[in-house]
Amino acid sequence: MADTDTRSPARSRRTRRSKPRPETLVAYYRQMLLIRRFEERAARAYTEAKIGGYCHLNLGEEPTITGLMAALEPSDYLFTNYREHGYALARGIEARRVMAELYGRSTGVSKGWGGSMHLFDTGARLLGGYGIVGGQLPLATGAALAISYRGGDEVVMCQMGDGTTNIGAFHESLNMAALWDLPIVYVVINNGLGMGTTVDHSSAEPELYRRAAAYRIEGARVDGTDVIAVREAAHAAIERARAEKKPFLLETTSPRLRGHSVVDPARYRTAEEKEQLKAADPLARFALELEESDVLDAEAREKLDAEVKAEVDDAAAFADDSPHPDVSTLFDYTYATPVPGESRRLPADPVF
Predict the structure, then answer these.
(1) Can you say whether residue 254 is alpha, beta or left, with left for phi > 0 and alpha for psi between -120 and 50 degrees?
(2) Tens digit of each residue's pLDDT (9 = 90 or more) over 271-312
(3) How many Cβ atoms sit within 10 Å of the Cβ of residue 256?
(4) SS3 state of residue 266
């Protein structure tokens, strides 16, 4: 069966992989471009003090995100870490709602109370970005256990950074997933750096997918700058988890173009390294490949860029015009159900 997905890259089920059609490649390029322009606008908004707290961008990781989300079904679940703006967009969440959340506005995906690191949307089955390193792993593993217990055919994808593979929750989660045959795909986004420390200096086994072998889990490494390669590898892992109820560890090599967060000047990188990253920009490379294949000429590319820029500008304007959440709603989402004796005291409120 030919690939016929011309809508959002995460929205069609395919039973067999083949060479993508031109319209699918263009859809992937547009998705990658939207993530790039959105993140550039987010960086600008941070310098304008419109975004507060921490803010981590997906610049350079666009092919990995698009490929992973193209392989997921709408019914599958996604857990991410704090670098998750692009995942929300690729999962089909409106750019307006994502940007509004970054701005801390009530129209955002988490009603303005989550911010950059805590996007959450049950409709898209994005069950959170998590600010604590590895905080998502036990929860994602538990979700996979719930699917197994109910006999469902959904799969959980749990994304993490390379530094997460060194914490206890990583090993505990993989061990449990292997013991209980859980339908989960753990995805390590290896950008080569845990904040400012290289993987080679922090991991005795720098080929992170090999860590799966300790738990008799299959693992694989894929070039995260190649959107099609990522999609193929993710699809194989997901469908194996779906059919065989077996966990999988997928590692994507996907260098980030900027520092760890928007306030990190990345001084641990040499000028030569920065130039190499700029020259290897995967978005520019993909655009060139499409042009050389007569899939997307310069005029069509400029038109797409204008469309995406307008969409991002609209999202920023929407966020600017949206109201801040009322302080009275601060505790509305603390618990899923009412809790007797729950304290709703604000700072400086009297104890009694």
Answers:
(1) beta
(2) 888 888 888 899 999 999 999 999 999 999 999 999 999 999
(3) 20
(4) coil
Q: 158-189: buried (b, 16+ CB within 10 Å) or exposed (e) per residue?
A: bbbbbbbbbbebbeebbebbbeeebbbbbbbb
Strand order, beta sheet including 218-223: 126-130, 77-81, 156-161, 184-190, 248-253, 218-223
Strands 156-161 and 248-253: unpaired
Separation CA 344–CA 334 (nearest Å): 10
Residue in the structure block whose two tokens are 């000028």: 271
Position of tokens 């967009």? 89
C-beta of residue 109 within 8 angstroms of C-beta of residue 121 = yes
Which residues, at least 6 apart from 296, have a Cβ–Cβ distance to it below 8 Å? 25, 26, 29, 287, 290, 304
- What sign for the dihedral angle of Cα 97, 98, 99, 104? positive
CA 342 to chain centre: 33
pLDDT in tens, 115-130: 999 999 999 999 999 9
Burial of 258 (0-12, 13-18, 19+ CB in 10 A): buried
pTM, two decimal places: 0.90
